Amino acid sequence: MQDCFAFADALGPAKIIHVYEPSIGLRAILVVDNVALGPSIGGVRMAPDVSLEECFRLARAMTLKNAAAGLPHGGGKVVVFSDPKLPQAEKERLIRGLAQALRNVYEYIFAPDMGTDEECMAWVRDEIGRVVGLPRELGGIPLDEIGATGFGLAHVAEVAQEYADVRLDGATVAIQGFGAVGGKAAHFLSERGAVILAVADSRGAIHDRHGLDITALLELKQAGKSVIDYTVGKRIAREDNVGIGCDIWIPAARPDVIRGDNVDRLEAKLVIEGANIPVTREAERILHERGVLCVPDFIANAGGVICAAMEYQGATELTALQSIEDKLRHNTRLVLEDSRRRGILPRQAAEELARARVRKAMDLRRFSLFSTGPRWI
Questions:
Q1: Which residues are catalytic?
Q2: pLDDT at 6
Q3: pLDDT beyond 70 at 326
């Protein structure tokens, strides 16, 4: 059992809840990291190999992401220890059971993440009502359908190209992960003239030095198939996607796909982190020393949570997309300008920005957790 206090610092976590209901096979963890800015928003991630450490790191990323985006929300995350490809009836039973188990944790607002989707959030709404990322039919702004995160990544790329000696029109791109984030990112980037050389999903990867047909690949995925069913190009191992020479590399799958032991294989000028915590700090440092620009996850992939927060406030889809564009372009430029001016890693610049906003909010609260002691103002 991991020590729940091993991750604690001045920001959090505020609450860690383990959920166990053997009658339905439910085992899950909720981490509410910090709620100084407001109730936490963070997705429900379903995978068999998740952990408390991963849950905390993801919750902290949400704290920083929401703060950097200027949203009135803190950070939280749920991980569910299960196969996301369960039969629908079993998956529904788990999600509904999870919602009931956490119905009184008002500091946490459910949202979709890897392994869950709008339909899962509809089940949560039916049980407790405290949720975002709902289907359109229930008044939601469907994050995956409109590609909120991928839409944001394309705008980040437009700004970041100025700082990485890359021209987006004609730039070559490789994407690790071709689901709701990676697939939509490929679509929006190809619309801007980028050439997608390689994509990977859970079953493997496909590479074509002349460029892939993104429309055909998206149709394959929509039909429930893998990118390796694409009939043009060369099949490669999923991990070999890292070694594809390109201008822009986008991790849009699991955590820690770029680490100290494989970072030397990466051949790109610009890394835009579409997934949460996809590159270790050691690997980011090594890339920075090599002159590779990394746009941190909680800056680059904030499109989804911005959309979710706008939905929670009752905004329209058009307003949400405009907010994603405005916030991500502004924050990317702010962070990269500070990084360039001070000669520091973009992550350091981004974390300083986000942490300052969280600390300011904590100072304005009547009671501040995780200070040197309770402070009643």
A1: 77
A2: 72
A3: yes
In angstroms, the CA 253 to CA 177 distance is 5
What is the pLDDT at residue 259? 96
How far is the first Cα of the chain from the last one, in angstroms, to the nearest whole number? 38
pLDDT for 367 equals 55
Compute the distance between CA of residue 315 and CA of residue 303 in angstroms, rounded to an integer: 15
Domains of the chain: 15-142 (3.40.50.10860), 148-301+346-356 (3.40.50.720)
DSSP 296-355: -HHHHTTHHHHHHHHHHTT--HHHHHHHHHHHHHHHHHHHHHHHHHHT--HHHHHHHHHH
pLDDT category of residue 376 using cuts at 50, 70 and 90 = very low
Element (H, E) at 282: helix 281-289
Tell me if 141 sits within 8 A of 118, measured CB to CB: no
Cβ neighbours, 10 Å, residue 223? 8
Longest CA–CA separation in the chain, Å: 66
The per-residue pLDDT for range 59-88, each reduced to its tens digit, is 999 999 999 999 999 999 999 999 999 999
For residue 112 the two structure tokens come to 């979709």
Tokens of 107: 């500091």
Cis peptide before 13 (omega within 30 of 0): yes
Contact at 8 Å (CB) between 365 and 36?
Answer: yes
Q: Which of 145, 185, 165, 183 is nearest to 272 (CA)?
A: 185
**Residue 2, C-beta contacts closer than 8 angstroms, at least 6 positions apart:** 51, 52, 53
Q: What is residue 75's three-state secondary structure?
A: strand
Q: In what order do the strands lie in the sheet with 172-176?
A: 234-236, 204-207, 195-201, 172-176, 248-251, 270-272, 293-295
**pLDDT score, position 377:** 26
